[in-house]
Amino acid sequence: MLTLLIFLFIFVMYVKDIYMISGARIIDSMPAGIIITDTRLRIKHINAFAMDHLFRLNPDDAPDPVLSGERFLTIDRQVFNMHGCMENMVSDGKRTFSKTLILRNQMGELLVHLSVKQFSPSEDARYLFVITDISDEMDCVTHSPDGFSGKEFVLAKTIIGKDQKIRDVYRKILLAADSMANLMITGESGTGKEMAADAIHRLSERKKNPYVKVNCASLSESLLESELFGHVKGAFTGATSNKTGKIEEAHKGTLFLDEVGEISAGLQVKLLRVIQEKTIERVGDNRPIKVDMRIIAATNRDLYELVKEGKFREDLYYRLNVFSIHMPPLRERPLDIPLLCNHFVDRFNYLTGKQVKGLDNEAMRLLMDHYWPGNVRELRNAIEHAFVLVQSSLIGVYDLPPNLFKHEDSGATEPDEAKKAAQQGERQLFRKTRGGRLPISREKLQQVLEQHDWNQTQAAEYLGISRVGLWKKIRKFEL
Ligand SMILES: Nc1ncnc2c1ncn2[C@@H]1O[C@H](COP(=O)(O)OP(=O)(O)OP(=O)(O)O)[C@@H](O)[C@H]1O
Ligand SMILES: [Mg+2]
Q1: Which of 301, 330, 400, 449 makes an SS bond possible with 261, Cβ 3.0 to 4.6 Å?
Q2: Which atom from ligand 1 is nearest to the alpha carbon of 327?
Q3: Mean pLDDT to the nearest integer, 365-384
Q4: Is the pTM of this model over 0.85?
């Protein structure tokens, strides 16, 4: 990896001459993105690798020689950031700049190494950008400024969080990726179980082999059986042709069984047999088919509790739970909230083309105090909602979804938890908004008073206002 970078760097030192001699042909055949711009960052040349692989652009989109900086911006927002990096480089009086960053295109994300060089005094071909795709080099032993190893660095760019609990998750993901053991990922809804499973597959030796996902809660027992095991023509009414099951599809790769706690008793037995015997039989056929796959199971239920209640087989539980990773709820790592907000603001700026800078202090305080029963998904949805409403460069309280503080559709697993979360959130909303910015309606006031048996001290405490303030409101509403 390092050798490749050094080679590329030496190459770029001489690239101007080569470019002169053989035009764009050599540059086009390079296994790295090469972009040459003039002093105003207008693209003078972009090679095939950058077009096809990095930015996924059609040849028709190829920038013409007088392409403006604006167009450059629309190719990819990260390129715009390069613009900023390069300005820094020039203002610091340096001639080179390099950085590792995530580049997004419509197919997904790539980890790339960017080096920029001011390589000619000519106005027309002033800057050279070399962009190397290092997504497959996650094993590299380099360390990032945060002290992350190469693989951790990749994790830190996707599973956002600085809390020690998330660092422990990274460590376990890396251990899991190195092993072939079946794995259980637990955690409340929206904590990132699926993201963790994706990362494990991507970082494992099986990354080039199939990664097949099945949601065990979304299908009836018989449909799930045929989805997992496949069937032969005529096995049941409607089976008009042979169908390969997901387990077979995952051969040599990874099978992700989401919401595994929902599997029926009958299917639990069959799944256990697959794990023990490493063979399956399609529905309607008794010929065994060999399968070799690694199972990652996920659940937001307390599976051990289900075992104790006799609803989940203990032997299957231990077969799946050889190694386990628990995704911590967001409320246990509140300092990650601002970090995640920035991440989602960046993401939605990228997707919507807006230029939101972040959240104002009051909005951030509300988010910091929230109970987050729906965890990171709920936070992402809140920011997405705010992006629809926001009119200025900062998201304010009024841009956030009102139901955020009521938890009608909370993802909390326990009813008590949801109730607690609702009360806590609502209470915080009242506290933050006292002073009349979000006035309490007559109905709401009446409801709070009834909840507290008309005990004004308790109701005032709940609303975060003084008793006199409450008394004034009661009078105003003639309650
Ligand atoms: N640490 C994180 N950093 C960035 N995004 C995250 C993080 N955790 C979760 N997300 C985002 O939250 C959403 C939910 O994540 P995911 O689907 O992995 O959760 P889950 O635990 O599988 O939820 P469920 O139990 O409801 O299926 C996704 O959009 C994901 O991108
Ligand atoms: Mg999930």
Answers
A1: 301
A2: 21
A3: 92
A4: no
| Domain 2-136: which CATH number of 3.90.920.10, 3.30.450.20, 3.30.230.10, 3.40.50.150 | 3.30.450.20
Average pLDDT, the chain: 79
* Residue 245 alpha carbon to ligand 2 centre in Å: 21
Domain 331-438 grouped into CATH 1.10.8.60: yes
From the CA of 329, how far away is ligand 2's center (Å)? 14
Q: What is the 3-state secondary structure (H, E, C) of 142-173?
A: CECCCCCEHHHHHHHHHCCCCCHHHHHHHHHH
**In the prediction, which pLDDT does 286 show?**
84
In this structure, the residues whose C-beta lies within 6 A of any atom of ligand 1 are 159-161, 187, 189-195, 300, 340, 343, 376-377, 380
| Residues with CB in 5 Å of ion ligand 2 | 194
How does pLDDT run across 140-164, given as a tens digit for each residue?
A: 434 444 555 667 777 888 899 989 9
Q: Are 286 and 238 in contact (CB under 8 A)?
A: no
Report how far apart, in Å, the C-alpha atoms of 121 and of each of 9, 15, 16, 43, 95 are.
Answer: 18, 14, 11, 16, 11
CATH 3.40.50.970 fits 150-326, yes or no: no
> CA-CA distance, 120 to 126, in Å (whole number)?
5
User: What distance in angstroms lies between residue 374's CA and the mean position of ligand 1's atoms?
Assistant: 10
